[in-house]
């Protein structure tokens, strides 16, 4: 319950009615029963281990997204965690504060709408090592509430996560980020597809009969020049 309460407190207030917000409010109300909260928690995080925030270092590409919510194409996330111990990374993030089990960071996302590059700046937090304790806010006006990782996959030789699936208690919207586009296509895409299809992230009730969109990587390489810019 503590994690779900922390999630709800991280949502931005919204003046007009919103179907997803109403659904979220109904869900959170039902979670007042411990048994229901435990079932919901296990449904979201059954495949997650404890988080190691430093392994989010690096550049991330958005390869799967809920396009009814996020109109941007070919989005890229950057982070740059700055730890108290002077460890640095990149992920749409500047680390503001970090202790062994908590962290605060800022986030930045670049995407393309009608051939124009758009930028969203958000923030994130980690309130413990357990699944559900990491919240990432994109800064997009269409994202009232944060995302949390529900699955992380693969480890590089440097010990970095190779892809992660971000979602919400409603399993909508959902995004998948990867570090290596080619490796994702050849090694992780089928695994990700099977996971989101089997576990209700592909087309949940809140998505109103829409499905997750898998990005055409070849098109993105042409329309978003940041894709091949290793110095950004």
Report the helical percentage.
Answer: 10-25%
CATH classification, class level: Mainly Beta
**Order of SSEs, N→C?**
HHHEEEEEEEEEHEH
The total count of strands amounts to 10
Distance between the termini: 39 Å
Shape-level CATH architecture:
Beta Barrel
Number of helical elements: 5
Apparent shape: globular
Proportion of strand residues: 25-35%
The count of domains is 1
- Parts with pLDDT < 50 across at least 5 consecutive residues: 82-93
Structural class: alpha+beta
Mean pLDDT: 77
CATH superfamily descriptor:
Calycin beta-barrel core domain
Round the Cα radius of gyration to an integer and report it: 17 Å
CATH-derived topology: Lipocalin
Biggest sheet, in brief? 10 strands, antiparallel
Structure description:
InterPro entries: Calycin, Lipocalin_dom_nem. With 232 residues, the chain is an alpha+beta fold. It has one domain: Calycin beta-barrel core domain (Lipocalin), CATH 2.40.128. The protein is 25% helix and 29% strand. It has 5 helices and 10 strands; from the N terminus they run αααβββββββββαβα. It has helices at residues 2-9, 19-30, 34-45, 181-198, 217-223; strands spanning 59-65, 73-78, 94-99, 102-113, 116-126, 134-137, 148-155, 161-167, 175-178, 213-214. Strands 1, 2, 3, 4, 5, 6, 7, 8, 9 and 10 form a 10-stranded antiparallel sheet that branches. The protein starts with a helix and ends in a 9-residue tail after the last helix. Residues 82-93 have low confidence and may be disordered.
Give the gist of this structure.
The chain has a single domain (1-230), classed as Beta Barrel (Lipocalin). It contains five helices and ten strands.
């Amino acid at each position: 319950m503590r994690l779900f309460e922390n999630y709800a407190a991280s949502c931005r207030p919204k003046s007009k009615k919103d179907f997803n917000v109403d659904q979220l409010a109904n869900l959170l109300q039902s979670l007042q029963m411990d048994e229901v909260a435990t079932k919901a928690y296990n449904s979201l995080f059954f495949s997650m281990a404890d988080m190691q925030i430093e392994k989010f270092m690096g550049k991330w590409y958005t390869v799967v997204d809920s396009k009814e919510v996020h109109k941007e194409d070919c989005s890229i996330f950057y982070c740059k965690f700055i730890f108290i111990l002077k460890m640095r990374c990149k992920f749409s993030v500047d680390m503001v504060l970090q202790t062994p089990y908590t962290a605060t960071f800022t986030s930045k996302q670049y995407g393309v709408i009608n051939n124009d590059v758009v930028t969203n700046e958000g923030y994130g937090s980690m309130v413990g090592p357990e699944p559900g304790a990491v919240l990432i806010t994109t800064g997009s006006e269409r994202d009232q509430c944060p995302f949390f990782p529900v699955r992380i996959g693969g480890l590089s030789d440097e010990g970095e996560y190779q892809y992660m699936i971000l979602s919400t208690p409603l399993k909508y919207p959902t995004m998948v980020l990867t570090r290596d586009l080619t490796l994702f296509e050849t090694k992780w895409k089928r695994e990700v597809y099977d996971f989101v299809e089997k576990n209700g992230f592909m087309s949940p009730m809140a998505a109103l009969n829409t499905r997750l969109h898998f990005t055409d990587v070849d098109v993105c390489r042409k329309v978003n020049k940041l894709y091949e810019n290793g110095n950004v």
